[in-house]
Every structure is written in C-alpha cells, then in structure tokens.
Design goal:
Distance between the termini: 25 Å
Number of helices: 6
Order of helices and strands: HHEEHHEHEHEEE
Strand order of the largest sheet: 2-1-3-4-6-5-7
Low-confidence stretches: 1-8, 10-19, 21-30, 40-46
Structural class: alpha/beta
Shape: globular
Largest sheet: 7 strands, mixed
Mean pLDDT: 82
Bound molecules: zinc ion
Length: about 200
C-alpha cells in the first residue's frame, strides 16, 4: 500500500516516501513451538498471545516515517513506556525522551475513529538540537516546540483526508492542534488549547 499523504510529505522533506505494507494479521498455519511463540511475542512488543479460545484485542500498528519502524499497540496490553519512548525518539540524534502517555492514547483513538489498523507517525520527540537545525533551515517549527518536551506528535491516518483528521483532532480538546494540509499530517500536543495551520 502506498500512501498519497506520505508521498506528498516525502516530496517536501526530500526523503523517499515509505511504501510500507500493512503487516499480515493472519496467524501462521503451522503450530508454533512455545519457544518461537515467546520470541514472537517479545519481538512484536505487545505481550503474549491471548489464551486459546480468547479473541485477541484489535491491534493498532504505528509506523514511524523516519525510522521505518513499526510498533503494535494492543489495547489490552500496551507496550512498556520505554518501548514507546524509543519508538517516538528523535531520529536525528537517535535520542528518546519521556513521552506524554496521552499521545499514544490519542493516535490509537484516531485509528479507532477512522477504522484504521495503521497510523503513520511523522514526528514525536524532537531533540532541541534538531529543532534548532530545522529552524535554521527555515522550517516551520516553533523555538520552544512541544515536540522538544515530548508533548507533541505529528501523524496521519492512511486513506483518511487530512481535513477530516483535523476536524476530529480539534474535537478531542487535548491541547494544541496544527493542520499541515500540504504535508498531509496533523500535529497534536498536550499544551494549551490552540489551533493553527501550516503548509
Ligand atoms: Zn508537530
């Protein structure tokens, strides 16, 4: 699946657009050894598989545009904070920070609202060093951006119009909401409630 919003974004930031595929949700046909099952549960970071006969909770798969990493979020057993912080790390310095937990809840809520199994994350933590570089390059980033405090996330939902996501985001009353219509993503943060538009 190729995402039009990501292609638009790629054109702006000069990076190749991700051509990611939604991971196959189908379980392997052959029964797995216990050792392999445990290894798989560890590698996908969402706890052990449900007990036999129990229906698994709906997964939301976060995709990081910069690191090309996936993080599966199971509502019943969310990943440890450290895993989330690592996933949302600053890609330039490779450094994580303690992210505001409400941000993962909000993107999972967005996925549920738009019936999507995938959310594309464009930006989570932004190291002050990287934020300064972006400012010097003339990018539209605030000096004391909420991203540098681990309080903001830029994201989009594949196949959902950015305008529709923006309407939903504002209705959540979480904090700041920025619309980046040309780039094809929405910014949400846990700072004071305020709305703005970028490119
Ligand atoms: Zn942002």
């Amino acid at each position: 699946m190729r995402c039009a919003a990501a292609i638009a974004l790629g054109a702006i930031v000069g990076a190749a657009a991700p051509a990611h595929a939604v991971p196959d949700a189908a379980a392997p046909a052959a029964p797995m050894a216990k050792k392999d099952r445990l290894a798989l549960a560890k590698s996908t970071q969402h706890g052990p598989p449900p007990a036999p006969g129990q229906r698994p909770g709906k997964l939301v798969n976060l995709y990081n545009f910069w690191t090309k990493e996936w993080l599966a979020i199971a509502p019943s057993s969310p990943p440890p904070r450290a895993t989330i912080d690592r996933f949302l790390r600053d890609h330039f310095t490779n450094k994580p920070t303690a992210m505001e937990p409400k941000l993962v809840d909000i993107v999972v809520a967005a996925a549920a609202n738009f019936h999507s199994e995938v959310v594309d994350v464009v930006s989570g933590f932004r190291h002050p060093k990287y934020n300064l570089i972006l400012r010097k390059k003339g990018h539209q980033v605030a000096r004391d951006s909420q991203h540098t405090h681990g309080n903001a996330i830029d994201f989009f939902v594949p196949n959902v119009a950015t305008a529709a996501l923006h309407v939903w985001a504002k209705a959540q009353k979480l904090g700041g909401v920025g619309l980046y219509a040309e780039s094809g993503f929405v910014h949400m943060d846990t700072g004071p409630i305020r709305f703005w538009s970028g490119e």
